[in-house]
Amino acid sequence: MADREQPVTLRTRKFIRNALLGRKQMVVDVLHPNRANVSKDELRSKLSELYKANKDQVAVFGFRTQYGGGKSTGFALIYDSHEALKKFEPHYRLVRIGAASKIEKPSRQQRKQRKNRSKTLRGTAKVKGAAKKKDKK
Asked: For a Cys-Cys bond, which of 3, 44, 93, 118 suits 58, CB 3.0-4.6 Å?
């Protein structure tokens, strides 16, 4: 892909050192002329080089490309340690960067149907009823 070789410029604004959460936080402006956009993975690696941090400790999110293209703006968090990242980052963002695994659960509709089926039963029959219904299917 010739797209990857196109130059990308990173500029950071509103830089704050958040000691309580053990991180540096900033707004990132990405200038990418002649290119649709830049992947979050590529931005993480460029920011880690820029701030001399490990790529695993960088979280980027909330990027929006300006109308007409060529410039995107988003948010970046660079944690002091991997433990701080695990402790303070939301689980869905940990899943995105590969630091955690997604919790597999039945779909929302299936959970609601199970809840409503158990309403028709009383007492300990709720547990037995759920098992019986599973056997039938």
From this structure: 44
Give which of 39, 46, 48, 134 is closest to 96, Cα–Cα: 39
What digits encode the pLDDT tens for the residues 5-59?
788 889 999 999 999 999 999 999 999 998 888 999 999 999 999 999 999 999 9
Task: Enter the pTM of the model.
Answer: 0.76
Residue 131's beta-bridge partner residues? Answer: none
Looking only at the bridges linking them, the beta strands covering 23-31 and 71-79 are antiparallel
How far is it, in rounded angstroms, from Cα 101 to Cα 97? 10
